[in-house]
Amino acid sequence: MSLESKKQFELELDRTKSNTTKKLYMETINRFDKWLDNNSKEPSQKSVREFLNDLHGQGLASSSQNRHLSALKTYFRKMRNEELAVESTQKSEKEKRPVIEGEDYPNPEKVKELIRNLDGKFLNLRDRAIFCVGFGAGARRGEIVRADREHFDPPHITILRGKTRGNEVVDHRRKLGEELSGYIQEYLDARSDNNEALFITRKNDGVERPHPNTIFYMVKKRTGQFLGKKYNPHALRHARASQMARKGVPMKHIADYLGITTDVADRTYSHLTQREMDEVPTAMS
């Protein structure tokens, strides 16, 4: 990275960015330039990924990593008129390998046991119902928060998904089955409010939809209590998908069920189907 190119970039930032953003971006560029010198590297997509990986290894917060990434992408786009197709380290690393039971998601049978053991108090009923939707319908935490009472039509639930199609919201009707639907209905019967949200949290003598982070920490807490390891809500989607893959459900149907592309489903879950196939006795055994 030449001194001249950095000066040109700084002039461009003077025109397009605030002073604070300019300062942060230039700090990133200088830090990356120093990293290149120390590691005898040339600027490239690969070196940017390695640089971000080093930052991740140093425990840098995701928000700071994203800021560094944004600065570098802006630099290369302006100076070379090209977009660096790189992503944050955590996301790219997750997409490189299939999910692993016990590490990325809990055993589906253990999730079923957890759901059956959550009963009694109102909060337990709500949390159990959330697990029913997260596991039973493969819903993301944001989709769980957006769900309304009217979307629950036993034994089905409609999930509003918009992630894979930009701003378009697509209705996905999913069959939960009698048992999971019964748990959700038990929770709704225990409520005395008229809020349209399927799930609520109490606040200031009233009720409102829970924040997605409320779902996140609740799932981690409950899985830690019952399974001995804390999993995030996304792990419930993986558990459901792995269950379907092992039962021979085609990848196209799994992808549609989760609201993801077939390529992503195949890369993430196809090894589970293959493992089951490997366990089939040979013709002459």
UniProtKB/TrEMBL annotation:
InterPro entries noted in UniProt: CB, DNA_brk_join_enz, Integrase-like_cat_sf, Integrase_catalytic, Integrase_recombinase_N, Integrase_SAM-like_N, Tyrosine_recombinase_XerCD
Keyword Zinc: no
GO terms, molecular function: DNA binding
GO BP of this protein: DNA integration; DNA recombination
Keywords noted in UniProt: DNA integration, DNA recombination, DNA-binding
Residue ranges with Basic and acidic residues bias: 90-100
A Pfam family that the UniProt record links to this protein: Phage_int_SAM_4
Core-binding (CB) domain ranges (all copies): 1-80
CDD domains, per database record: DNA_BRE_C
Signal peptide start and end residues: none
Sequence ranges assigned to domain Tyr recombinase in this UniProt record: 101-282
Taxonomic superkingdom: Archaea
Region described as Disordered: 85-105
PANTHER family: PHAGE INTEGRASE-RELATED, TRANSPOSASE A
Protein's name according to its UniProt entry: Tyr recombinase domain-containing protein
